[in-house]
């Protein structure tokens, strides 16, 4: 093999169904650790921290410390499957949903990650609007005539995204390593600034005004949906990991460290701003607005832009690789560039539609509703039904065990539909909104329904 062929092999980005051989698994424990710190130490985490601040400081911290570790244990369980089998997360849905049935979670996943990219891009574009205001006097986000400024910000972020996914997981790994250093510096910086301006005792004692209180169960669901949003991307990375610990322990530690820190920054930032201004508005929980009000300057805004790039590199990877599960003829790199353009177009919608907060909360509901049952089914299928045995060579076989009826496992799809309906019924019931929320219960319910139905209907599969 000559140097050119070797170089192409090293930089190859495997499609959804392709199994990554052990010889080409290049992601170490440290790589995975920094990847998931960078994934969560970002403006989206900051924003969701500000949103759940409506549950008071104590409630928001409780939710952060309880809800997210559960989500990342679920992520590690699926990450391990990716490490053992060697394919992407969406390819791993084929044994349970069927070869063609896996298109359902794949389409949902594409929309989810494009949606997350749009969320982070919008928040970063707000930062760019404040920078353009300081330099050129253009109207910043929230001011009259700010639409054009936001469009410029979206264009700038889209260019940065294209650069960040230029060589697939290789460039993503590099972006995360660089970004995590600056991200952690900003986290320390804002924490110190907020606590200097507002004593922690006042932040703890603060209570949201009537009408803006968030129920603890709703806060649980918001945090759960936020963290579970990463799960569909995990195997896209763990299939490149060198060891079991790199595919399970490292993501748990990295994701929790990034989230705990930046959610805490978002919580104290939103509450600290409410204490100093006398106004609590979760619509203004985005880091750019808070940074501007705290007077942290252009450098802080630039770091926020960087955090968007590190998080969206993973979002775009998840969306792009899912596209290749729909059609194996599509090249990974082509899919990555395609979803980047789609995400840029979607980011424009909140500028002219409803409030960004409303769009954000609807998006979190969507994630919990459609993906909670999928995760329950996937974990149950691999660990309990199949006993950790997947025949990867049959993932695309029309005569294989995962073909079912015309490529669809109607039993699994029925379980998923029933679970979604149950979630819609549960999510507004006081017994869930006042306690643990509905997302984790529906994961357990879907797992039980799938286990029972698979034993009844899929005995020979």
TrEMBL record:
Gene3D superfamilies listed in its UniProt record: Hydantoin permease
GO cellular component labels:
plasma membrane
Task: Cite the InterPro entries for this sequence.
Answer: CodB, Pur-cyt_permease, Pur-cyt_permease_Fcy2/21/22
Q: Where in the cell is it found?
A: Membrane
Q: How does it sit in the membrane?
A: Multi-pass membrane protein
User: Primary place of residence?
Assistant: membrane
Pfam families (alphabetical): Transp_cyt_pur
Domain of life of the organism encoding this protein = Bacteria
Spans traversing the lipid bilayer: 46-66, 72-92, 113-131, 151-168, 180-198, 218-237, 249-274, 294-314, 335-354, 366-385, 406-426, 438-458
> Tell me, what is one Gene Ontology molecular-function annotation carried by this entry?
cytosine transmembrane transporter activity
Keywords from UniProt, A to Z, are: Membrane, Transmembrane, Transmembrane helix, Transport
CDD domains the UniProt entry points to? SLC-NCS1sbd_CobB-like
Similarity comment: Belongs to the purine-cytosine permease (2.A.39) family.
Its recorded name reads Cytosine permease
What taxonomic classification does the UniProt entry list for its organism? Bacteria, Bacillati, Bacillota, Clostridia, Eubacteriales
């Amino acid at each position: 093999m000559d140097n050119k062929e070797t170089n192409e092999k090293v930089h190859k980005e495997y499609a959804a169904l392709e199994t990554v051989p052990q010889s080409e698994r290049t992601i170490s424990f440290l790589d995975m650790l920094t990847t998931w710190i960078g994934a969560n130490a970002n403006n989206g985490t900051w924003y969701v921290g500000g949103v759940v601040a409506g549950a008071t400081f104590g409630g928001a911290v409780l939710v952060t410390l309880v809800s997210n570790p559960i989500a990342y244990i679920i992520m590690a369980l699926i990450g391990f499957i990716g490490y053992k089998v060697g394919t992407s997360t969406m390819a791993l849905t084929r044994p349970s949903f069927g070869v063609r049935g896996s298109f359902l979670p794949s389409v949902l996943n594409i929309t989810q990650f494009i949606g997350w990219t749009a969320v982070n891009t919008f928040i970063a574009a707000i930062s760019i609007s404040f920078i353009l205001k300081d330099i050129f006097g253009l109207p910043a986000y929230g001011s009259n005539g700010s639409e054009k400024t936001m469009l410029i910000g979206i264009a700038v972020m889209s260019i940065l995204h294209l650069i960040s996914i230029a060589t697939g997981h290789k460039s993503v790994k590099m972006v995360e390593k660089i970004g995590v250093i600056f991200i952690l510096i900003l986290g320390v910086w804002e924490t110190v600034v907020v606590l200097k301006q507002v004593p922690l005792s006042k932040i703890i004692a603060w209570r949201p005004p009537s009408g803006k209180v968030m129920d603890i169960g709703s806060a649980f669901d918001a945090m759960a949906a936020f963290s579970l949003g990463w799960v569909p991307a995990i195997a896209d990375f763990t299939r490149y990991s060198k060891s079991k610990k790199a595919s399970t322990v490292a993501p748990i530690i990295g994701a929790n460290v990034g989230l705990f820190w930046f959610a805490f920054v978002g919580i104290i930032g939103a509450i600290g701003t409410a204490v100093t201004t006398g106004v609590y508005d979760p619509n203004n929980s985005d880091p750019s607005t808070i940074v501007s009000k705290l007077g942290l300057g252009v450098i802080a805004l630039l770091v926020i832009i960087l955090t968007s790039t590190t998080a969206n590199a993973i979002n775009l990877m998840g969306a792009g690789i899912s596209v290749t599960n729909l059609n194996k003829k599509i090249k990974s790199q082509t899919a990555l560039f395609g979803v980047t353009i789609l995400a840029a177009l979607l980011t424009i919608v909140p500028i002219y539609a409803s409030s960004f907060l409303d769009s954000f909360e609807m998006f979190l509901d969507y994630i919990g509703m459609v993906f909670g049952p999928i995760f329950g089914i996937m974990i149950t299928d691999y660990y309990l039904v199949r006993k950790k045995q997947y025949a990867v060579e049959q993932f695309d076989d029309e005569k294989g065990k995962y073909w079912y009826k015309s490529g669809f496992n109607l039993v699994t799809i029925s379980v998923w539909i029933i679970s979604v309906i149950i979630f819609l019924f549960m999510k507004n019931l006081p017994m869930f909104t006042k306690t643990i929320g509905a997302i984790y219960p529906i994961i357990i319910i879907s797992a039980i329904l799938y286990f029972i139905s698979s034993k009844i209907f899929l005995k020979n599969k």
